[in-house]
Write a structure and sequence with these properties.
The chain is built from three helices and no strands. It is globular, with a radius of gyration of 11 Å.
C-alpha cells in the first residue's frame, strides 16, 4: 500500500520528531506487538519486514531530507 514505510508511526498525518519518539519507544521496549498493522507498516522504513534501530535511522534521514527539501 502507499503507506508502507512512510514513517508516520503515530499516524497523525505528519512526519516529524513525534514519529521518531514513537518508533524509538517501540524499538527500545521491544513492544512491536502493541503496534497496529498500519503502524508497523509505516514504521518499517527500510522495508525489511522488521522494526528496529535501522528504521529509526532511516526515519530521521527521511525527516531531515524532507526539511532540506523545503
Amino acid at each position: 500500500s502507499e503507506s508502507d514505510g512512510n514513517g508516520d508511526v503515530n499516524m497523525d498525518g505528519a512526519l516529524n520528531i513525534l514519529d521518531v519518539l514513537t518508533l524509538t519507544n517501540f524499538v527500545v521496549y521491544a513492544n512491536q506487538d502493541e503496534m497496529t498493522e498500519t503502524q508497523f507498516q509505516n514504521a518499517d522504513t527500510t522495508g525489511d519486514g522488521q522494526v528496529n534501530v535501522l528504521d529509526v535511522i532511516t526515519l530521521v534521514n527521511m525527516i531531515l531530507e524532507n526539511e532540506w527539501a523545503r
